[in-house]
Amino acid sequence: MKLKFLLIIFFASFTAWSQVKFDAVVSKETLGVNERLRVDFEMNEDGDNFRPPSFQGFVVVGGPNQSISKQWINGKSSFSKTFSYFLQPKATGKLQIGAAEIEINNTVYKTLPIEITVTGAVDLDRDPNDPINAAEDNVHLVAEVSKTNPYLNEAITVVYKLYVSRETAVNGWNEIEAPKFADFWSQSIDEKQFKVYDGSYNGKPYRYVILRRTLLYPQKTGELNIESLSLNINVEAPTNRRDIFGMRITRPAQITVSAPNKKIKVKELPEAGKPENFTGAVGKFDFSVQASKTKLDAQDALDLTLTAKGNGNLKLFNLPKPTLPGSLEVYEPENLQDVSVSLAGMTGKNEERYTIVPQSKGAYPIPPIRFSYFDPTTERYNTISSDEIVITVENGPDALASNDSTNNGSQKPVSQFKYIKSQADLVAQNKDDFFGSKLFWGLLITPLLLIPLAILFGRKREAYQNDVKGNRLRKADKLARKYLSEAKNNLGNQKAFYLALEKSLHNFLKARLNIQTSDMSKERISRLLQERGVTVTTTAEFLKLLESCEFARYTPTSSVAMQQDYENASRVISEIDKQL
């Protein structure tokens, strides 16, 4: 009995000692909007697949930092592992830090949500030796807008500059929050390399770099908001302490800087003098209409090309529709755009090409086509008119005479009941003729013939369903095409685009090489592709696309780079299909 009691005590103690703990601990539950918060996710056993909460309402300014502690005291071992984050609240009010998850011994554990109260800004004791305080005073992010009162669809630019004092060094940054430009057509212009300029900030000498230049075309009138850009920056900030040589001592720090929101007021295009055929073109343009040929035979084709070229919102307006004679067969136009984007705006041409096929000989005039645009420099509308073009069809059938043509001054009456017989030759059908007829035997034999086909179809269908490997590969192929289409739809949204593109590439490999995601090392992919006959160049291009998807998780990219990656993915996938 005593032994049994001791065993119960031992197992109870062992169970209590080995109990898994996973908790969230915050440095404070009430803080000012200008303060920072530390949250630690602590566990007493090692786990896998740690998933932090989304930290909605906060900006992550530091972390995750991981620390592990192992101790052995009086014959007992202890273990602790901690993931730490530093958070900056975005606004005042009640915020919540959601549940984090960890997998320990095949069991998923979650922390309890924690409610945080964020008050207005509070006075902070600024330690002059604190590198964060020093860095915040010496690093500034500025957004410069070229024009604050543009017209609708007039090009403006916003340039983001990072100013750094001469005593502070920047060791790198990552983007926390990017402006979405929801009310604008936008395109970022990448900096090929960062160049350091000399300048001034608040009257003091600074150095600065241009981080990003973005071209904007406002798509709404009224007051529009250009959202802020926020960066997490690693710096070496000076302190008030000096070394034995009299030089200031610097310490590393991580800070968050934001470019303030910018407001612009977009003007309506003037109604006075607006042409009826105006379709929204804003800028400076030339306009022309050209026919590939003006003399041809019936059933031959010609191209009628309308071209607007110059500088302005070339991708954002429609070209006028030509008025063509009804006897010309006209197909839907093909839109062709050759546009380059710079800080000066869109430059190039916008074309629409109509294919026209005349049905009969004759002369067909195409009336002048008028194109109107608004010039924001002169604040006036301009209209360009093309010349009349005459299409001569030399050989072919004559045009059909109209219904109102006359003969000797009077119209010949046409009988509408010409083919209706006044007397019907009806013959009674003998019902006995059906039995023994071809129709009778056809209806009788056809079901018998369909029975073997149904059996064959059933076996094929059963074999198809039992083909687990084939079905898996077909499903992967279908998913690859689905995610590639999804990536195209998310051009401009970096996170969603590269996530879909990466899924498309992985499913493509599953379908073509019959490997799983867990086996997709670069060496294995390269070896399998080359064993199947794919060239070294194409293999390298495919691996480069996978690297682009990985790098995009940590570094900002532009819409142009996303478009190039999408086009390269479509081309490389098609090329590998051909080579396989």
TrEMBL record:
<feature type="signal peptide">
    <location>
        <begin position="1"/>
        <end position="18"/>
    </location>
</feature>
<keyword id="KW-1133">Transmembrane helix</keyword>
<keyword id="KW-0732">Signal</keyword>
<dbReference type="InterPro" id="IPR025738">
    <property type="entry name" value="BatD"/>
</dbReference>
<protein>
    <recommendedName>
        <fullName>BatD protein</fullName>
    </recommendedName>
</protein>
<keyword id="KW-0472">Membrane</keyword>
<feature type="transmembrane region" description="Helical">
    <location>
        <begin position="439"/>
        <end position="457"/>
    </location>
</feature>
<dbReference type="Pfam" id="PF13584">
    <property type="entry name" value="BatD"/>
</dbReference>
<keyword id="KW-0812">Transmembrane</keyword>
